[in-house]
Amino acid sequence: MNLIAHLEGQLRELDERSLTRRRRVAGTPCAPRLVVDGRPLLAFCSNDYLGLAAHPALVAALAEGAQLYGAGSGGSHLISGHSRAHELLEERLAEFLSPHLDNARALTFSTGYMANLAMLTALGLDSGAEIFSEQLNHASLIDGARLARARVHLYPHADLAALEALLVASSAQSKLVVTDSVFSMDGDIAPLPQLLALCERHGAWLIVDDAHGFGTLGANGRGALEHFNLRSPNLVYMGTLGKAAGVAGAFVAAHASVIELIIQRARPYIYTTAAPPALAHALLASLDIIGGAEGAARRAHLGALIEQFGQDLRLDRWQHPAPCTAIQPIIIGANDEALRVSAGLYRQGLWVPAIRPPTVAPGTARLRVTLCAAHTHEDVAQLIAALNLLERM
Ligand code: PMP
Hints:
transferase, 15 helices, pyridoxal phosphate, Aspartate Aminotransferase, domain 2, pyridoxal phosphate binding, globular, AON_synthase_class-II, binds 4'-deoxy-4'-aminopyridoxal-5'-phosphate
């Protein structure tokens, strides 16, 4: 058999179903205003929700971090790669989340994907552990559950009664309820207070992936836990540092004993090189902004843009559920139509990618609009006008 021809057949099949994914090379300077192929583009697809990725204070801190610590960490955290910058960042993150967690400690990772693999393998490898996973969870949580080799129960989106029935029927010694806080393709927020009450009633952990909430939700940017004013020893929290925080990486924050277990047990933590310390140094500057007056002002502006988009966008054929977060899906349905609309926006200098299965359910292909604090009200008005026009075509 010709191996290459076999692969090419698989690629052709994806193309025939309008499922091929394409990358675009983003030029400088930074989203949302980019130059791609020599053309200016206004992006509505970045996760840089507070517009911090190009913030002069972060850029300067990154350069200073490289001067202080060099370009790379040179080792895994448990050998020689755990720098003073990592340690300071973990202390700051633990302190930041301490209103919501008992005896809080934080642990940093190179990516959110790895943080989720580590967290779920450390807690889920307990013999007799069972994972109760929300239907719309991010791929990294799904993969973490697979890697943990625990029994996994899926519960339907935001269905508390279904989850409770599963928890009641389970005799597992260790129960892990796992959920995104802000769902990455829908933008709605999980009912965390009710989920936490269920977990406390049934002796389960509540593992919250706040990738899209950390920095954007809560008066001080502490994320979903602050948004709902939650505090519990049952909480295990994951936040990412490459979205609202504007740099890269992620962290898990929880009771110190949970963190110690992850350090001792989690292969995705133990067997990988620590992120460059300069990133941790830049993240200290990012936390100063997120938790300070400038962060509050950026969140307020983002909130006003979200409100504008919800109020002014009027669609007939497509659906816009208008969630209250920076993620604003426009559900179109067919893959080819979603691609056509995305291409139409692109021709007008607006970058909004089409999201198709398997990332979302078949028949729910959509545009995933993300708003960020670096957008203006005029930017949002321009996107709304373009969408209204394309819907009528
Ligand atoms: N969880 C969720 C809900 C996400 O949306 C993402 C990234 N898109 C991740 C985890 C992974 O984070 P990272 O990009 O830092 O790997």
